Amino acid sequence: MEKKVTLKDIAKKAGVSTSTVSRVLNSSLPVNSETKNKIIKIIEETGYHPDFTARSLRLGKSNTIGIIIPDISNPFFSMLVKGADDYLKEKNFSTLICNSGNEKNDEKTLKFLIEKKPDAVIYAGIGNIKIFKNVGIPIVFTDRLEKDENFSYVVSNNYQGMTDMLEYLIKTKHKSYVFISGNNNIFSANERLRAFKDFTSTHNVISKIIHSDYSFDSGIDVVNNLSEFPDVIVCSNDLTAYGVIHGLKLRNLNVPKNLSVTGYDDLLFSEMLNPSLTTVNQPVYNMGKAAAEIILNMIEKNNTSVRIFKNELIVRNSTKNSGG
């Protein structure tokens, strides 16, 4: 095995001090162009790669932001990460993405991440906020809101978005509803459920609430367990709605001819679905970008903040009277 090239090796070949090589690598202080070009050429010839772990310990920062998400296969979280990562790259920060799987693994995932010495963490999981109390680095939460002024939050107005959806459905003569809610530990799921409960308390409709998870398979399972079908199945997210529509097709029911189906999030495939999905658009990419903006501000100025995005009703072909 070849010996790893070190900073000292580069300095010796260039006939300069290690601090001069370090200045070139970090662009911290000016180095005359002839010497700089010589050092860069030697670095390229030797294939030298800086030891970023040592560098982060020396400088007290790694220019790395950790991101914890519960399900990387869910396009919602993929888009959230992309929004954050695109912004951070522009600011010369890299990202370390960790997929926890579920809230039970969040503490273990956080410990693993902290060992990598990130400068801050963007957290999109649903675990207990207590695990972050003594982390010692800035944290911004996405898609959740807690009553704790020590942290920053990026959320969208889930209550408003679901209310807009339900008001549209009542105006288009939907009188019976099955509402598929998400995990009780998810802030957004609880807000959408709260909107549905408030809606049914003020409108004369037939309703049923089913608790499930945010997955394609759960949508199929709900359909398989229904003995009677409502005018509309209202899903707390798009992935569940995809499963519901697929499950209804397996039971030879047509959407929207036999009943309507709605989602929430407006994922990439929702417009491509057949029928295209009536849903609520969350500006997920911009939420990820905002989380990155806030986390860098927390690093530089130690300021916490809360950003709340508005959601938008998107009417497509999976609901009656939507042109389908």
Overview of the structural elements:
The protein has 324 residues and is α/β, with parallel strands linked by helices. The chain folds into three domains: 44 residues, Orthogonal Bundle (434 Repressor (Amino-terminal Domain)), CATH 1.10.260; 119 residues, Response regulator (Rossmann fold), CATH 3.40.50.2300; 126 residues, Response regulator (Rossmann fold), CATH 3.40.50. The chain is built from eleven helices and twelve strands. The strands form three sheets. Strands 2-1-3-4-5-11 form a six-stranded parallel sheet, sandwiched between helices. Strands 7-6-8-9 form a four-stranded parallel sheet. It has a two-stranded antiparallel ribbon with strand order 10-12. Helix 7 runs parallel beside helix 8. The protein is elongated, with a radius of gyration of 25 Å. The protein starts with 6 loop residues before the first helix and ends in a 10-residue tail after the last strand. The model has no long low-confidence stretch (mean pLDDT 90).
Annotate the secondary structure layout:
Elements: H1 7-14, H2 18-26, H3 33-46, H4 52-59, E1 64-69, H5 75-90, E2 94-99, H6 106-115, E3 120-123, E4 139-142, E5 152-156, H7 158-171, E6 176-181, H8 187-202, E7 206-211, H9 216-225, E8 232-235, H10 238-250, E9 260-262, E10 279-281, H11 284-301, E11 306-309, E12 312-314
Parallel strand pairs: 1-2, 1-3, 3-4, 4-5, 5-11, 6-7, 6-8, 8-9
Antiparallel strand pairs: 10-12
